[in-house]
Amino acid sequence: xDEFSLIDRFFKSILSTRQDVVLGxxxxxxxxxVPAGQQLLVSSDTLVDGVHFLSSWDPYDxxxxxxxxxxxxxxxxxxxxxxxxxxxxxxTLDAVWLSRFAQGLNDTLTLFNVALVGGDTxxxxxxxxxxxxxxxxxxxxxxxxxxKPGDALYVTGPLGAAACALTPDAMPESCRHTxxxxxxxxxxxxxxxxxxxxxxxxxxxxxxxxxxxxxxxxVASGVGACVSLQAIPLHPSVLMFxxxxxxxxxxxxxxxxxxCVAVSPAQEKxxxxxxxxxxxxxxxxxxxxxxxxxxxxxxxxxxxRGYNHFGASDDDVAIT
Length: 320
Ligand code: ADP
Ligand code: MG
Hints:
Layout: H1 3-12, E1 21-23, E2 31-32, E3 38-48, H2 59-76, E4 80-90, H3 95-111, E5 115-123, E6 127-137, E7 152-155, H4 161-165, H5 173-184, H6 193-199, E8 200-205, H7 210-221, E9 224-227, H8 236-241, H9 246-252, E10 259-263, H10 265-277, E11 283-289, E12 294-296, E13 300-301
Parallel strand pairs: 4-5, 9-12
Antiparallel strand pairs: 1-2, 3-6, 4-6, 7-10, 7-11, 8-10, 9-11, 12-13
Helix pairs in contact: 2-3, 6-10
The protein binds adenosine-5'-diphosphate and magnesium ion (MG).
């Protein structure tokens, strides 16, 4: 099997029913139809063996996770995911591995109605870069920069499960199963995109840890934030297995892919009513203000320890 038969066998066979794919896999570029009045959202995420996943994982789970983390960025912008490309680097041509990977890709893309429209296949250390394309009505994208002092801050679901799953501590089998599921198959909140467009002032997805991502939203918006630690939603399985570290995982662990949303006082009632109408929940964790930094009620400024590839704990890497 060479590169081209590999593409045909594993990736070209992933079909979608989307009518807006004029030309998918097989030519020099995909040709896609962007409806009049809509704008294109584009975002890439790279997953590297040993950093974002382990090669010991089931390839089905690796593919599922890779798609879901990309979808989360479109959800945070209030967009509808449409198309994805996959740049895949493989150390060997392993048909069993590829078949499992393609199955995970196919199932996840089908679940979210996203078409695989192209990519690149190369040989090297295992890694993949997916580029997701989403659609949003002109001018309707939600950004990180729209929060104002006085806006309420919400988190759209319990945090800390993915970080907890990565701890080496022994845990009961039922707990391990739930936590690993959260790590491998995070649920991108694309379901909330219409609500974000109607009610959110700003939003960000929580990929690097709540504090790190909230800090990004604050810097982009030119605001500070005061949060109540008691109000931060902790994942029930983490609370059961490791209650002592649950808050730490929620604040500083990454990979949760819930959203942190700023909602103006004028929109708050409707935001909550819209959530209730769809049977969804969000947790009010604090409020934006005009002071610097992210603070906890009664505790002062919280230091950010979210995941940072070139953070201070790495060997003095200077990025200029
Ligand atoms: P080119 O040499 O013109 O860049 P390639 O030979 O790399 O094209 O790819 C052939 C076709 O297969 C293209 O349409 C490309 O988008 C698609 N493709 C290559 N690798 C992948 C992949 N891993 N997943 C999906 N599509 C792929
Ligand atoms: Mg070409």
